[in-house]
Amino acid sequence: MTGQLLEVTEDRITISQDFKDRFVAELKNFKKGKKGYKLTIAIDAEWDSQRKLTVGYALVVEAQYVFVVLNSAIKDREKFPEVTEAIIERLENYCQEKEWIPYWKNLNDDASDTTSDILREYDINKGSFDVLLFYSPKDLRVAFGTKNLEPYFNQGKITQKRRVAGNYRNDELKYRIRDLKGWSNTTLKGFAASVGVEMPFKEKMDFYKEQMLDGLIAEPEIFLEYMVEDTICLFEIREEFVSNIRELQHKIIGRPGVLEIEEIPIKAKSNFNLSI
């Protein structure tokens, strides 16, 4: 996508109107008449366990549009003096270099549905969305707001057993949770490796796993790559896994597998039965 991503205002770098207009125009390819948009999004959040702080999360739309959402709370100089202006600039500048769309949002607000708010900024007010993640109810709570999701968990509309499953709705934005953990008994990295998806940044933040804010401070650019990689890889894993299922069908029944992604259950046992 071309066009200047960010522009400098008096107080802070912001997303340019030119970029927003171009993004909205491209997204119209995914609009399905009166039902609105039909999109697949992926989410992955990073938090600091020791500080009990959400650092940020990545929201990726259709494997190509990347939103980097950072917790505005970390810019509080009294609480986090180590998060300097230079670090903030490095984060924003790297997003511009990579053409990722940066946001500073209060992720400590349990009632805020940040994902829906961002989508609406781009005139996405109606539609259905598959939400890719890899077993983490906490990622959902960060992306959509704990208070918004709590009734869904309490009423069993969203469950979290071997995988997270269910649906969530914010007005005319309808989300269906597609937890890829249901296809695997291993870690995200292990699952990615099993289908040939590389994750070069996965190990570079391992040292900071319990203290991700320290990782952001020490290596701002690598932190961003790590968070975005964990999200984009979900699209790649899904594509490779579905390809493998179709190939398995071909070997078993003697004709090319023709199942659409939506027809393949997010359950490993179901896929074995389906192929047979």
Distance between the termini: 42 Å
Number of domains: 1
Average residue pLDDT: 87
The share of residues in helices is 25-40%
Task: Give the total of beta strands.
Answer: 10
Strand-residue fraction? 15-25%
Element order, helices and strands? EEHEEEHEHEHHEEEHHHH
Q: For this entry, what is the oligomeric state of its chains?
A: single chain
Q: Reading side by side through the largest sheet, how are the strands ordered?
A: 6-5-4-3-7-10-9-8
Radius of gyration: 19 Å
The assigned structural class equals alpha/beta
What does the model show?
With 276 residues, the protein is of the alpha/beta class. It has one domain. Helix content is 38%, strand content 23%. The protein has nine helices and ten strands. The strands form two sheets. An eight-stranded mixed sheet has the order 6-5-4-3-7-10-9-8, with helices on both faces. Strands 1-2 form a two-stranded antiparallel sheet. The N and C termini lie far apart (42 Å). 32% of the residues are buried.
